[in-house]
TrEMBL record:
Organismal lineage: Bacteria, Bacillati, Actinomycetota, Actinomycetes, Micrococcales
Organism whose genome encodes this protein: Branchiibius hedensis
CDD domains: MoaE (cd00756)
Signal peptide residue numbers: none
Biological process terms in GO annotation: Mo-molybdopterin cofactor biosynthetic process
Protein name as annotated: Molybdopterin synthase subunit MoaE
């Protein structure tokens, strides 16, 4: 039997969304929940020029544990990849995929997983605005 945590990675390179989805593919899965997070052009009414993510050296291990902790019994597989480094508006920052026999389980666990990643994995975001100011988000 394959492990349920199929992919947990921190990457300085652009994320291949298809490979994350492919990682959770399984002939027993009837549904796959996917979240793709992009760098957005505005935050709090301010224009964003880009951002940078920094990760603690333990981030990949913490990510794998978070995935394992969030999985419920009906989930077949889960995967997540988070970017680090300099990103611009429109870049993919994070991808989460969860497969299950039924869509409801896949979608609800996908939501829980991205919410938990944002609060527990030691990755920090420094956002840059068009006016030249920067701020750390979530510290």
């Amino acid at each position: 039997m394959e492990p349920r945590v199929r992919l947990a990675a921190i990457s300085a390179e652009p994320i291949d969304v298809g490979s994350v989805i492919e990682a959770v593919g399984d002939p027993h899965a009837g549904g796959t929940g996917v979240f793709v997070g992009h760098v957005r052009a505005q935050d709090g009414g301010r224009d964003v020029s880009g951002l940078a993510y920094e990760a603690h050296p333990s981030a990949a291990d913490v990510l794998a544990q978070v995935i394992e902790d969030v999985l419920t019994e009906p989930i077949i597989a889960a995967a997540a990849v988070h970017r680090t480094g300099q990103l611009v508006v429109g870049d993919v920052a994070v991808v989460v995929a969860v497969s299950s026999a039924h869509r409801g389980d896949a979608l609800s666990v996908c939501t829980a997983l991205i919410d938990t990643i944002k609060t527990q994995v030691p990755i920090w975001k420094r956002q840059a605005f068009d006016d030249g100011e920067t701020e750390w988000v979530g510290l």
